[in-house]
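FYI - complex with NAX, inputs then prediction.
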Amino acid sequence: MRIVTAAQMKQIECNADAGGLSYLQMMENAGTAAYQIIRAHKPDAHVLAIVAGKGNNGGDGFVIARLAAQDGLAVRVVLAEGEPVTVDAKTNFHRLDGLNVTVCPIEQIDRLTDADVVIDALYGTGFHGTLRPSGAKACCFMNESGAYLAALDLPSGIHADTGAVAEGAVHADLTVTFDSYKPLHVQETSKPYCGEIVLADIGISEECHNGIG
Ligand SMILES: NC(=O)C1=CN([C@@H]2O[C@H](COP(=O)(O)OP(=O)(O)OC[C@H]3O[C@@H](n4cnc5c(N)ncnc54)[C@H](O)[C@@H]3O)[C@@H](O)[C@H]2O)[C@@H](O)CC1
Ligand SMILES: [K+]
């Protein structure tokens, strides 16, 4: 079982990129793998709500939104902190143009209703500190949705390296993590927030991990 810190994961991704697997392709692989795992867990789901932050965790969520829409599911993307800011997340956000996906800012809803599955694409390894009001509201909507709650990489509101759980953090049924486990997946404080943990291969070769983890 390989466990790496957020900084080590960045180095592994950097090695993979240098070896010809682009960051955009890693995001595509992460979203695709997570989508397949979530579908295998909830094959009867028809309505998907994806709560997206503005970083790359949100980008993984946009990949899932596209794949689900192409499969004919009803897909709603909720932007918790406005439009994405990272290059690859922006690319995947714009790939939703013309697809049957409803995109709405969180300010326009007062709760998450009617979804069979809610996907937490708010924060991944980039999160630290406490939840600010917008993040806290998004986590609260997810936790109170009553839907099956699947977190991408880790439940939002948890520090990947220390396992510190911010007040109001997401309490997931399933966590799909990418390439390697992170310390929070095994720490006593944070593990219970992950639900079932599934490790997804995102195409990074073994040699990219040499000397790490
Ligand atoms: N090549 C890559 O970089 C890949 C990244 N992947 C995904 O990208 C994630 C990491 O993405 P990012 O580094 O963009 O960051 P995140 O998407 O985890 O976080 C989003 C933003 O939240 C901000 N933030 C941190 N603490 C906050 C707080 N308390 N309140 C509000 N905002 C806060 C951070 O500055 C960051 O910009 C991974 O967990 C994984 O899901 C995957 O797509 C695989 C490939
Ligand atoms: K997440």
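The chain has five helices and seven strands. The chain has one domain: 6-204.
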